[in-house]
Design a protein that fits this description.
This protein is α+β, with helices and mostly antiparallel strands and 128 residues long. The protein has six helices and three strands; from the N terminus they run αααβααββα. Strands 1-3-2 form a three-stranded antiparallel beta sheet. A hairpin with a 2-residue loop joins strand 2 and strand 3. The longest helix has 21 residues.
Amino acid sequence: EEILNTASLPLPLDTAFRSILSNLEMYRPYLPDGLFQRMDSFSTRGSLVDSLVPGMVTGTCAIVFTDIQGSTATWEACPDGMGDALRVHNAVMREAIEEFSGYEVKTIGDSFMTAFDSVWNAVLFSLT
């Protein structure tokens, strides 16, 4: 089912949007339930983007990338336990992002890309 009409986008952006949306489905168990309900209820790019980025940082911002070191080996050794750990990790990360006025740009596996309205908030988030 087509949930995003990207026909008017330049090809690289169209490809990026489609890739992001297809990747989201793979991470459905780790993402907030409301995300998919909002995505499923919109059919245009503008409506979808507006619904997904209400708290987006604009202007000058600080970007923070996170990653769990050694997670690939842990996934291989204990996939069931790592799945549970990832759900807890993601919940803790999202609470900290919100606490320091950040914005979750994207996640891939156990990595987060976040944006903050100030370097100070980014540092405080990183030390949490």
